[in-house]
Amino acid sequence: MSNRITTGGQKLFMTFDITPTSHSLAEYKARGGYSALRKALTEMKPEQVTKEVLASGLLGHGGAAFLAGRKWGVVKLNDGQPHYLCMNADEGEPGTFKDRWFLENTPHLLLESMLIGSYALQGRHSFIYIRGEFDLAYRRMADALEEAYAAGLFGENILGTDFACDLVIYRGAGSYVCGEASAMLTSLEGKKGYPRNRPPRLTVAGLYQKPTVVNNVETLANVPYIVTHGAEGFRKVGTAESPGTQVISVSGHINTPGVYELEYGYPFADFLANECGGMLNGSELKCVVPGGISTKVLTKDDIMPLRMDHHSFVAAGSQLGSQGMIVVAEGTCMVRLLQVMLRFYHHESCGQCTPCREGMGWLERISNRLVAGQGRPEDIDRLYQISRANDGTTICGLGDAAGYATVGILDKYRNEFDYFIEHKKSMFGGRLEVAGIGDNARLVDAAVA
Amino acid sequence: MKHLVPEFETWKKRYPAGFESSLVIPCCRRIQEDRGYVSDEDIADLTEYLGVPRIQIEEVLAFYTQFRRKPIGTWHVQLCHNVSCSMRGAEGLLAHLQGKLGVQPGQTTTDGRFTLSTVECLASCGTAPMLMVNDTYHENLNEAKVDALLAALSAEYQT
Amino acid sequence: MIEFFIDGVPCTAETGQTVIQAALSAGVRIPSFCWHPNLSVPGNCRICMVEVEAEGGAWFDIACNMPVTKGMRVLTDSGKVRELRKDTMQFITLNHPVDCGICNKSGECLLQDHHYAYNGQPSLSRDSKTHATKFYPLSDRIMLDNERCIMCSRCVRFTDEVSKSRALGVINRGDHSLIRPNEEVDFNDDPYSDNIIDICPVGALLSRQLLDHARVWYLKATPSVCPGCERGCSINIWHRKSEWKLNALDPQLNTSIDRVTPLENPAVNGPWTCNKARDLSRIFERPRALQSKVKSAPADLAAAINAATALIDASSRAVALVSSWGSNEELAAFHSTLGGSFTSFVKADHVPVPGERIEDDVLIKADKNPNRFAALAMFSALPDDAASAFPADTDLVLVWGEGAPWSAIPSSARVILLTSYDQPENVRADVLIPISVQTERNGHYTNFQGTITAFEQCFPKHAPIADAASLFEVLYSSTSRVAGTK
To answer: Is the ipTM above a cut-off of 0.95?
Structure first.
């Protein structure tokens, strides 16, 4: 009996049943695994692989939706320098857990994609940076790597060619900011995860100041399919502007949270009804945080008519982001929701640059005061101002992200904040949960000032 | 730390030459796995073994949340209290755990069994609420499951 | 050379320069906290953000990491840039304690300067400031106040890149970040440690010795040269301004060295100096020789000069030990006057003391005297075996300055001693005439590279003390004949 979901359009990844052994080398090969690698190494030149990835229109799945092939194309082949390909598996954006699916269930797909990518970029050494908390994912990847080494898929003379590649799976140690590409590389150098200013771009000076390409897990996972089916074959899936599929993680007040693969262009209304199983305990949809908490919230009216692709979500004033969707039911206090988000950003700021280091703490302190019933009208102006002052002024996007979360919620739910200030309590009893949820229903009434 | 050096030496083989600095983080993790924390002596030994400035190691241990320089309880109970988990009952679970263990986040029970922490998103939002004990995720929790987990861990502790 | 525009004015930049570097060369001051011309670029304070006009719409970024491109049109003071600076100043002062009234940095604090220039408004925050360690002893010499610290990382980068002691780092993250010392390295062992006091843009790093010593506006800086080694770092010697003289306390306090800071000299020491320069009062303010003496009995200057002249006239084999702390002018004066009457050798007045760094590739040189280079151009060096400098029939030795090899001087020889300091070996002198120190006159030293640098007078001389140069002239003109050979 298959455990696969069939709605949501064509699947590129969720094409097999997950079993206790489905992640093994043997079963991956039985599904056709490593044939793309063989094709790339024996039938294509490195630059042809890059050309195919570029032509496919593959957009990055880490949040920025940057054209993956263009990043690869910047690296100058045969420049006498080492080139490094680094897979960013530091999935830390709250609400996002889809890369974890790949790491735990298709480790060999990821290894194959690293080999193909290293071949295209002339990378002798490559790295997968996994967040420190992903113990199971790490062990699956590490076991798969040893299987692959034993099968001659890493090391020298891979598949009988003169292509050689060594891979290191590098574990982080608890830091959201290490998901930012330049911070990830600085962490890979054995230091604090401090993001870097650009210039120079990482493709010019990245890991140990050498040309480096950083790609998200899912972005790289698409590469074997593109090699096998060509850019044209890839473009048959999804939409013209968002080719392929997205593996989306969804959670919150829905009946069946989880990881689902959707062809781009799938209607949100269908997604909510089918994959999400509808709203939890008969609740009504209030809003959705579409792509991790760093994306702007979309109300029910904003999102219900949308198709799930990049263009539609941008036009609606938000983005698909890291593909970590959080569905919020009516009756949830948005002031408390923002408070949790701001606490997160404050905890994760690396502390280098002034607007973020000071601003994140300031945002959290204001939100705490609001929730404690000690808010003032000027606090709203302050939240907007701090957000604006972090927009485009920081070393990395963490400051901007907190600003988007704040402005997004303030723009749509200003009334809840005004109410909290005036009445010194939440419009919804401070509730973050839906009534009747398990035995953990809690009502938090803000303290009266 | 010295008995771990042969292991560290095998790791070096997969890295390019000149990447000694990179080994700081994996070595600290392995040392902490072994000892339960990273001691001052470990830092001195690692400084010498890798040839990096000692301050780099001190900074790394202080920057990343998973490293510690002091021992904690046998079971590190790390409850996620980020957005999706809070939407599915994490705050109630925190209160429950505080009551059950008799400690606040950041503290260890007097018998040394449990250290309670609140942590940020562990990328398990679909199975919220959840927590991590040492390296293992425990998902789709409620109070009853938490009670059962604590009981099982206590029993394991005794044997 | 790249041509571009700053605020509409055409400027040129060298290839590879950033906007802030090119602006500095063009005399345009873009504010900075974290950027320092002699350190790497961290780009963390964000106060140097500028506007760049472009067809697709203006963009904004930090000037310290912005490469100059041809035809670029940079605006350093547009409306948006001013707004950005105001925002940055609000953030920097958000948790910064208003310690100005009790902070030593007041009056020379970049935070004060930039606040007045670019914001001047009270904080918009209605929440309490965060707190951190107020007095952290970074070393015996330096105190760290973490609340005042704005995390510019200049101090950390200095110990990484210039002194290379790797003594400092940043622990924790976010607004819990703290500057802390390496737990194994003793920052006291870094002879360049005090430079971080100068480069700290706020009052987070202060000299412990000088804490609450004097407000900077009570002091004036006189350019000088450090005599601690033959590098001859350019320095500023700070002392009490006459209009701020202390009336009711020991008058000595008005003529003493309050502090020493480096004076930027790209050819010699850049913007740095070592801690020995900071401690120059330990050299110059030792007990002074103030009283001329003839055979250890106090005498007036005229009598001492007569006695010395008589000794010179009477001698047939005279040796002089020339001071390597003599200025170019003093050495020239000796050379053209008494020099002819003596076989002269240049001695090392000072040698390294135990624990002192001998030499490194930063600033410190092994020769702990400021002017051996000039002296050796005129005279020979005292041989290592000092006794061989004195023929058996030496009957007169002129000792100029400190550090003479007293045990090598024949006991039968008479000694004329010209010195500044009251030391036990002074009793060996048949005639002792006190001379001025560097801070009491103008002059020049020549360093090991042959670079000549001027030092200026800071303090008046004590009443009866003469300059060595004029003494040489007087003694020379008083002698009746020329004796001895070169």
So the answer is: yes
